[in-house]
Amino acid sequence: MENKEILFASLVGSKVVEQIPRFSVIQNELAKHVLPAIPFLPLRNQDKIKKASVLGFEDSWWLKDSGPKEDQQFFPLSFSLTPNGQKYLLPYETMISINGKNQVIKRSVAKGNKIPGKVKERWSQDDYDITITGVLLGDYEIGTVENCYPISDFRKLKSFLTAPQAVYVFCEPFQLLGINKIVIEDFSFPFTKGENVQAYEIKACSDFDYALILKLNEV
């Protein structure tokens, strides 16, 4: 046999290679010096490839990925009804928008034409307007309402949204602005594509503790 025929036969696994006169001699010599014996050509190798099992694969096909933990979020946001009470971490990182405003008392006085504008008599800082946008995800992407819709997270979030009190917030941007509590003014659950997806939007304002009697140096 020519070299091309031998190469072709080895690639396609033909038994014709075993007809080569020197094949068995080489095989025997290799068996004497190499342990364990390795076939010279992969003609005698047994096919050890097993058929892949799909058991359980279909069950997890529509299972959603686990949500990020608190240390995996850049700005994790948690709610609580008390300063040191149990916290509820919003399962997926939210988008937070904070708008601030100063209340300035202006008065128009007769001050000539050389000085334009109004006289600003007093400044006071208004509440921060806060918008929180996020999403809740159920366990399965397709299935029944009990399996797909994020009922548990929906109920937990609803308990904070409808609470007749200020809600304590724990998030770095709020802490930098001195915001420890917010008052929820409006919230919505808009239509969201996906059986296991529910978006939400919260509109709130900051809430601070005030003292009715102030010292002169605090005015």
Walk me through the structure:
This is DUF6046 domain-containing protein. Residues 90-215 form the DUF6046 domain. InterPro entries: DUF6046. This protein has 219 residues and is α+β, with helices and mostly antiparallel strands. It folds into two domains: 1-49, no CATH class; 70-218, Elongation Factor Tu (Ef-tu), domain 3. It has helices at 3-12, 23-33, 145-148, 151-161, 172-176; strands at 78-80, 88-89, 95-99, 102-107, 119-125, 129-137, 167-170, 181-188, 197-207. The longest helix is centred in the N-terminal third of the chain and has 11 residues, at 23-33. The chain is elongated and about 115 Å long.
Sum this structure up briefly.
This protein is of the alpha+beta class and about 220 residues long. The chain has helices spanning about 5-10, 25-35, 145-150, 150-160, 170-175, and strands spanning about 80, 90, 95-100, 100-105, 120-125, 130-135, 165-170, 180-190, 195-205. It has two domains: about 1-50, no CATH class; about 70-219, Elongation Factor Tu (Ef-tu), domain 3 (Beta Barrel).
Question: What does the secondary structure layout of this molecule look like, with pairings?
Answer:
Blueprint: H1 3-12, H2 23-33, E1 78-80, E2 88-89, E3 95-99, E4 102-107, E5 119-125, E6 129-137, H3 145-148, H4 151-161, E7 167-170, H5 172-176, E8 181-188, E9 197-207
Antiparallel strand pairs: 1-2, 1-7, 3-6, 4-5, 6-9, 7-8, 8-9
